[in-house]
Amino acid sequence: MIGGGIAAVRGALGFLTRLPVGHRDGDWAAFRSAPATFPIVGYVAGTLAAVPLLTTGALPDPTVALGYLLAVYAVLGIHHLDGVADLGDALVVHGDRERRREVLKDTTTGVGALLAVALVVAALALGGLALTGLPPRHAIGVAIAAEVGTKLGMAAMACFGTASDEGMGRQFTTASDPLSFVGPALIALPAAALTWPNPAAAVSLGGALAGIGLPWYWANRHLGGINGDIFGAANEIGRVAGVHLGVIAWTLF
């Protein structure tokens, strides 16, 4: 049991981040059938990506924001942005469900892809800039909660979602069921208290989870379900939503 859990975490870190965790046979299978590993990755990656926020007040705010942006993609990689790009093209294409599915699989980069990626990256950079207005402890708490929340959203997609085709999305959705979501939810819950007594982290966690719902809803309506691109796009959109809503909550409360 312990060995299987380690394999699942190693598989999750290897797939969802750029961390040099190594790879062994069975890691991928262990990961895709263990949705609880998603928020675990959120804690690890979120903490590492938030390190530049420790320099708030010592360095210019735009520099700190740039450091946060670079740290996010250094730790987590840019492969999920491919999902954002494909979703952007699918959003603007004219046609039926099958046409949109074709666009998602097409390797050609269109205007919709460029705009979608630019908006997501710019929104995250602006979120990082907004984080510099918080005390470092609270800024880090919001950043971690956003990462945990967006990974919890991916776990929710795996546990409750329906795949649109035979690709990677189906490998997750067929390996978990709604009851499997209890574990990820319990693991993610402590992240809500990272800015206590201010509710910013709780709002960030919930906001990231809600952000996941936007591409998920669109995919169910226009594609007939989710796939690997939607998982990736949802991860990026959820993070942005979590950071911005967390900062708004800290400002208001």
TrEMBL record:
It is an enzyme of class 2 (transferase). It is a multi-pass membrane protein. Signal peptide: none annotated. It catalyses: alpha-ribazole + adenosylcob(III)inamide-GDP = adenosylcob(III)alamin + GMP + H(+); alpha-ribazole 5'-phosphate + adenosylcob(III)inamide-GDP = adenosylcob(III)alamin 5'-phosphate + GMP + H(+). Keywords: Cell membrane, Cobalamin biosynthesis, Magnesium, Membrane, Transferase, Transmembrane, Transmembrane helix. The keyword Magnesium applies. Pfam families: CobS. One of its GO terms (biological process) is cobalamin biosynthetic process. This is Adenosylcobinamide-GDP ribazoletransferase. Its EC number is 2.7.8.26. Its cofactor is Mg(2+). GO terms for cellular component: plasma membrane. GO terms for molecular function: adenosylcobinamide-GDP ribazoletransferase activity; cobalamin 5'-phosphate synthase activity. Belongs to the CobS family. The gene is cobS. The chain crosses the membrane at residues 40-59, 65-88, 109-134. Joins adenosylcobinamide-GDP and alpha-ribazole to generate adenosylcobalamin (Ado-cobalamin). Also synthesizes adenosylcobalamin 5'-phosphate from adenosylcobinamide-GDP and alpha-ribazole 5'-phosphate. Its main location: membrane. The keyword Transmembrane applies. It is found in: Cell membrane. Pathway: Cofactor biosynthesis; adenosylcobalamin biosynthesis; adenosylcobalamin from cob(II)yrinate a,c-diamide: step 7/7.
